[in-house]
Amino acid sequence: MLGSTHGTFTTDLRARVVACGESPRTAVHGVTAAPGDQDVSGRPLHALVPDLDRFFRPESVAVIGASDTEGRPNTGITRQLLAWAERVGARLVPVHPTRTSVFGIDCVPTVGALAEPVDLAVLLVADPLPVIEELAEAKVRFAVAFASGFAETGEAGAEAQERLAEAVRRSGLRLLGPNTNLNAFERFREDLDGPAVALITQSGHQGRPVFTLQELGVRLSHWAPTGNEADLETADFISYFAGRPEVGAIACYVEGLKDGRSFLLAADRAARQGVPVVAVKVGRTETGARTAASHTGKLTGADRVVDAAMRQFGVIRVDGLDQLQDTATLLARARRPLADGVVVYSISGGTGAHFADLATAAGLELPTLPQAKQDELHQWIPEYLSVSNPVDNGGHPVGDWRGRKIIDAILADPSVGVLICPITGPFPPMSDKLAQDLADAAEATDKLVCVIWGSPVGTEDAYRSTLLGSSRLATFRTFGNCIGAVKAYLDHHRFTAGYRSPFDEAPRTPSPSFRKAQALMRPGRRLSEHAAKQLLRAYGIRVPREQLVTSAAAAVRAAGLVGYPVVMKASGAQLAHKTELGLVKVGLTSASQVRDAYRELTDIARFESIDLDGVLVCQMVGRGVEMVVGVTRDDLFGPTVTVGLGGVLVEVLNDTAVRVPPFDEHEARSMLAELRGRALLDGVRGAPPADVDALVEVVLRVQRMALELDGDLAELDINPLMVLPRGQGAVALDALAVCR
């Protein structure tokens, strides 16, 4: 694998480690690093995981600005913190300069007057900055800042937030906020068991639907309201929750990512642990991105890049809060699938057919049940009804002893991993008996049983008591949410079963190619085509035979050496699109044509006031499939690699796939599978299959270039990359490179 780490590392955590003179693997102020080394750029390969035990379960809490004066906002917050501290067994110490007690508890005037170490300080002050140094001197481990007026308000607020973040970095404590809320200190139900959902939100209100899942019997273990993330961020909480034994799934509402690389490291940690991460990420549209930025002051990132990065590291992206609830719940509570096959079972043929269409379109596998299994089902279901999958029982068998027999027989088939029963509306006693049989069957099997209760009312006893009362059934209200959650469930377990972290195979030292390429870079400048192709050669990417000439006579000599027919192109750092200016001549077959072409190219350049470093005389390359492979930099994730249909099609069709390094050969091939024009590589209308292996090799070499030249290369565009017939390789016919 040609992988490595990339992008911008979370410098605040690493700076804290370096400042303390310790290795990134050691614990510093409650931050521990997972085992790992550094890549070629000196960046850690694994996430630093904050030890948040004392944040969520402190032994002592100081409330700065505590109050018991009725009608004041701080009073309500202090009261809630008192109740929370009692629930978690923490001692609470009010801090106020003019009060002797708050709610009957002795008060201290300043942080410096605290008589004992404090795990958590809650700052009920308008400006938390002056308090940070005091907390550091008192060796407080964690702090929460509720104050607003920071990055969410604009440039001045962003500057104030950076001053706060810098003070926190110097202090060694960890800060939640600013612009956060009390969600971390909510009352969680303790009478629920089983794997829990841990919740992370940047907007407290958007977490309410997930939090209220407790009323439906779903256990929640934590809520981290990250706010503006001046210090602690979504990635920190993902890393921490992924290591908690009670957490079955992590649900996130993300408006913006503070650092794309730290997010990937956290997602990698969750994937290693097999803990699913389900996320709503705002910013799919320009309006959504703009609104999110105004709320939290984060970069939302190019959405296609965010999408690709999440898929690469197994983060399940959903669009709605209802999908977040349903998908996270299913993934937290369902056991590992025993098979990928899905069977749809209903009391209505129309319902089964409708659901099967939707499920198949979404990519779920609905296997045809074996004939022996169909014969078995026809013992209880009339012969004229289809039981191949979907299974239609006609209605009547669910009302008696046959109903459970049918369900058990379906679940006994080894190809079946999931049974889904859509009940489109209550029709007692039929629907009530069916619901009870499904609940009983779910308790007796290791396979996933799902029910869609389609009634818009939702007050029926079969729904409220029977279905929701079962911790083994997965109950949904809509077809779409059920299909999406089941697809995510099967995909997640396939992903984690074969997961190999790309960070584990990252190179530790620069390659010889890197040293050659670095000498070619020109900071802040665009390279000519000739220089850009030298860059490709340094990384072993094939280019045509060519010579750079500065006279007509030299052009003729070069054509003889390259071999007719030839292509001639003007070469200069200013030239990004030569064809539009008539600066490319193709299929030249004689010395006279070469001389005339040289004069014409240089005349056009002179007329257009374009400085040339010469004219390229290039080998004519045989026909193949024109592709584009490139590198761009994303504000969040650093270098990204793109592959797609090239030539003029890249602008007409925009048929491309993107990935965030590091990735392996399997991921490179997955990129090609995403292309709408993928069939062109297989050969169409008599064309031979293209050399896909050579194309994949180019993608991986470009990735290596992007990673090693991260500090030097701003953009790379190989277009077209001519992918020749199978076994003949791929040739970069043109290239553009921009240095940082």
TrEMBL record:
Gene3D superfamilies: ATP-grasp fold, A domain, ATP-grasp fold, B domain, NAD(P)-binding Rossmann-like Domain, Succinyl-CoA synthetase domains. The keyword Ligase applies. Residues 533-571 form the ATP-grasp domain. PROSITE patterns: ATP_GRASP. Keywords: ATP-binding, Ligase, Nucleotide-binding. Signal peptide: none annotated. One of its GO terms (molecular function) is ligase activity. PANTHER family: BLL6376 PROTEIN, COA BINDING DOMAIN CONTAINING PROTEIN. This is Acetate--CoA ligase family protein.
